[in-house]
Amino acid sequence: MTMNRKIRVAITHGDTNGIGYELIFKTFENPTMLDLCTPIIYGSPKVATYHRNLLDIPANFTIVHHADDIKDGRINLVPVFDEEIKVELGVPTEESGNAGLIAINKALDDYRAGVFDVLVTAPIENSEAFRFSGQSRYIEDHLGLEEKGLSILVNEQMRIALATRNLPLKQVAESLTIEDLIEKTTIFHTSLKRDFRISNPRIALLALNPKAGENGLLGSEELEIINPAVNALADQGIQTFGAYPSDEFFGNGYWNEFDGVVAMYYDQAMIPFRALTTDSGVNYLGGLKLVRTSPEGTIDISLAGRNFADAAPMRHAIYTAIDIYRHRKTYDEPLKNPLEKLYKERRDDSEKVRFAVSKQKDDVPNKAE
């Protein structure tokens, strides 16, 4: 980003039969949003106009065809296709879903060209009419990078990373390995430090089985996979603890004692996250150079055209992306020209120091104590 312009936020329009344009236009109804950033909408001028007029939202946008035409202080819209597209509000179709992916493709092209700084994606409905792997995986695959992404759910209270993505429950256990848990927790640890500026994050790993497997009686994954990963990560200096039964962990408020949580499967993360989220849920794709977020919890396509959709998660997705972009700059700046060490540090390996919170579930302190 150059010094003489605001942070540029690319926003894809999502499913054209859904609530993407409603979220976008409601977000930028507040003129202070344009003081914060410069939005670049990747979509269709005709579809955008149709949604705006139907919802009677007073949002003006300027069509731009070249990066040089993007201006601060206004909503810029980059057309991603020229052909006519039928709009059937609230009805997911193959055409409307593909329109959302076309917008992502164009945005990724512009990202490679350095046109914008961060990406926010509006929802795309995964349905019988349009089946795809999800936007996070789609973006990760189409960036063509060696980096591995990590889905992280973020609100004002917690950050939950997913060890597995959108798998049938019967496939979760067979997909978990010590190496994979170590890799993903390490990515999470780096993200907590760099993206969220937590200097020494504490991370809890949830158990897969009820009651953390009851020492193997209810499952062996804790003994054979999760606990060994926790210990290996701790030996690397990463504060990891677990494995915690999810019912006790969330029911007793243990999550308050940690900076991040690693859930083993989708529902184990989503149920407590949505239960503890009011209007600020964000899905962040960590681990990549590209900063990408999306609103979490406002994906009900049946709301399309009814003016009921809450734009708060979209605003928070933008806020989160901007915060992460800024955090990375301040985190990376001192590392560009590090000072040479004046003496060799001595490392005391006589005792591996763990931290105040024990990895055993019975010893987790409660804030009320």
Helical region count? 11
Give the helix/strand class.
Answer: alpha/beta
* Spatial strand sequence of the major β-sheet: 3-4-2-1-5-12-11-6-7-10-8-9
Query: What spatial form do the alpha-carbon principal axes imply?
Result: globular
Could you characterize what this model shows?
The protein is an alpha/beta fold and 369 residues long. The chain is built from 11 helices and 12 strands. The protein has helices spanning 20-27, 32-36, 45-55, 94-112, 135-143, 169-175, 178-194, 221-235, 246-251, 266-275, 312-336, and strands at residues 8-12, 38-43, 62-63, 76-79, 118-121, 150-154, 159-162, 202-206, 239-244, 260-263, 282-286, 291-295. It has a 12-stranded mixed sheet, sandwiched between helices. Strand 6 and strand 7 (159-162) form a beta hairpin. The longest helix has 25 residues, at 312-336. The protein is globular, with a radius of gyration of 22 Å.
What are the salient characteristics of this protein?
alpha/beta, 369 residues, globular, twelve-stranded mixed beta sheet, 36% helix
Secondary-structure blueprint:
Blueprint: E1 8-12, H1 20-27, H2 32-36, E2 38-43, H3 45-55, E3 62-63, E4 76-79, H4 94-112, E5 118-121, H5 135-143, E6 150-154, E7 159-162, H6 169-175, H7 178-194, E8 202-206, H8 221-235, E9 239-244, H9 246-251, E10 260-263, H10 266-275, E11 282-286, E12 291-295, H11 312-336
Parallel strand pairs: 1-2, 1-5, 2-4, 3-4, 5-12, 7-10, 8-9, 8-10
Antiparallel strand pairs: 6-7, 6-11, 11-12
Helix pairs in contact: 4-5, 7-8
